[in-house]
Amino acid sequence: MLSRDSKAGIHLHYEFEVQGGDFAKAGTASSRVKRILQQIGTDAEIVRRVAVACYEAEMNVVIHAHHGTVVLDADLDSVRVTVADEGPGIEDIELAMMPGFSTAPDSIREMGFGAGMGLPNMKNCSSEFNITSEKGVGTTVRMVFDNA
Amino acid sequence: MHNYLIGSDWKVIELMGDTLDRADSVGGIELSRVCQILDGEVICGAEALDQVIESACGCDLMSDVLAFTRPGSILLTGLTNAQVVRTAEMLDLKAIVFVRSKRPDDATIELAKSVGMVLICSPYPLYESCGRLYMAGLCGCQEVETRLQPKVAEA
Fold this sequence. Notes:
The structure holds two protein chains of two kinds.
Chain A: E1 2-5, E2 9-19, H1 28-39, H2 44-64, E3 67-74, E4 78-86, H3 93-96, H4 106-109, H5 118-125, E5 128-134, E6 138-146
Antiparallel strand pairs in A: 1-2, 2-3, 3-4, 4-6, 5-6
Helix pairs in contact in A: 1-2, 2-5
Chain B: E1 13-15, E2 18-20, E3 29-30, H1 31-37, E4 41-44, E5 52-53, E6 55-58, H2 62-68, E7 74-77, H3 82-90, E8 95-98, H4 106-114, E9 118-121, H5 126-135, E10 139-140, H6 143-147, H7 149-154
């Protein structure tokens, strides 16, 4: 997963599968992402921001979707995380971005999630945040974290 | 009043005009002291109790923990599922205190061991556990920025 380009330096690319509804394994992908970034010497504050945002996105896949992927791309300038899922999609993204808005059921809230803070927190943690969704198809969150 | 608050490096501070016997723990306190103050039992990570922490967060809402908790803090919570450990891992927290004698299941303990997270079990409820640590001078995650940093700058 490591490629070298004489101009761009080192570029890392990893992909992880996330299974909807699998709470026992929820967070595994984000944990791997965090370890990889630590191993390549990414600044600790950047690692923390990536880990938190990635974990929020991964939890959303586990809570709401059937299946998803977490894609990590990292080079010297930035870390990019894309989380795409096959799921119900989001009907009104603007509404979903409002702090406190959530469609999670009580069973999720009892686990400490579903407070409607996930998407705003991802946006706060990242340098660039983009979300696209199609109802009945799925949702994709793209995040960029500048390395500096 | 509370003998455990007053040690050689603990002193009475003045806050908002009233004299409170809240200790001043500039520089943080060790996890072993957290354990002592909470009458806590270490579930795992006993070898890492010499770590120093500067702040704590008491919360059952992991969404809030993820949004507002400072790295290097400890989390006090009444939830015991694996996602609490994952949340703490992502945030670089040093330990999790389960209040009111709640214990996580074996899978959660194994997960904590695998990521090097210290787990502590306290007999006190969340409010009392937080209160004990607060009176010992341990800051909240918001408070620590204003309370500790200026003193570091003065020194």
